[in-house]
């Protein structure tokens, strides 16, 4: 298999409610894939199943051919899937650098006793971790604010930092849940460029849930449309925009006009 992620006919039920029904997707390496649909369509539920927040009622999920269905979120993150959330979840009272270091701790090999005692192996790893975090912030143009508390950043930079923190876990698949939410037009343009840039520079596959159609249609190479938990369309931006089922369920005639 050459797919990074395969969701093999997954279904999620909550009591008598079917939130996602028989969902299938195969995401290829270095692809930017978009998932769109009305509110309540099941988009975030799919992300939650992929990251281990939920275990599918039916079906299996594979990361690079490895079955990750039902594994805990921290285990799945360690295997190579990281995500952002609709609502920013930064540590607001920590600096930009400290926020990134939190993510880097996932890769530490030392145990708590080595850390408490300050043993040489731990201190070497800690120095290396700081070096890598600083290099990452330099690459993504956040070096100048590395000592600023995250809560003091402008909104657009907070969104950017959340993506960078997810990148610090060294994922092969990055899930972005409505990254453009609350952004002004200029911030949105910068975000689009940033997402394409990190895909190319960090060789990471990106899955995107987003309501801003300018973002979705502008950067996603393939788009899946969900409605009431079921796939109603899939294809390129042009194909999806011209699909009558998508126009009726989500985009509307005004968008097409």
| E-strand count | 10
Number of domains: 2
Helix proportion: 40-55%
What is the CATH class name of the largest domain?
A: Alpha Beta
Task: Kindly report how far apart the N and C termini lie.
Answer: 41 Å
Q: Find the structural class using helix and strand composition.
A: alpha/beta
List the uncertain runs.
none
> What oligomerization state is this entry in?
single chain
CATH superfamily descriptor of the largest domain? P-loop containing nucleotide triphosphate hydrolases
Average pLDDT score: 90
In CATH, the architecture of the largest domain is: 3-Layer(aba) Sandwich
Strand order within the widest beta sheet: 6-7-8-3-9-10
| Structural shape | globular
Strand content of the residues, in percent? 15-25%
Task: Please trace the helix and strand order, writing H or E for each element.
Answer: EEEHEEHEHHHHEHEHEEHH
Alpha-carbon Rg, integer = 19 Å
Major beta sheet, specifics?
6 strands, mixed
CATH topology of the largest domain: Rossmann fold
Number of helices: 10
Q: If you had to describe this structure to a student in words, what would you say it looks like?
A:
This protein is an alpha/beta fold. The protein folds into 2 domains: 5-93 and 156-256, Rossmann fold; 96-148, no CATH class. The chain is built from 10 helices and 10 strands. The chain has helices spanning 43-50, 73-79, 96-104, 112-117, 120-139, 155-167, 185-202, 213-219, 237-241, 244-256; strands at residues 5-14, 17-27, 32-36, 58-63, 66-67, 81-83, 173-177, 205-209, 222-227, 230-235. The strands form 2 sheets. It has a 6-stranded mixed beta sheet with strand order 6-7-8-3-9-10, with helices on both faces. Strands 2-1-4-5 form a 4-stranded antiparallel beta sheet, covered by helices on one side. The chain starts with a strand and ends with a helix.
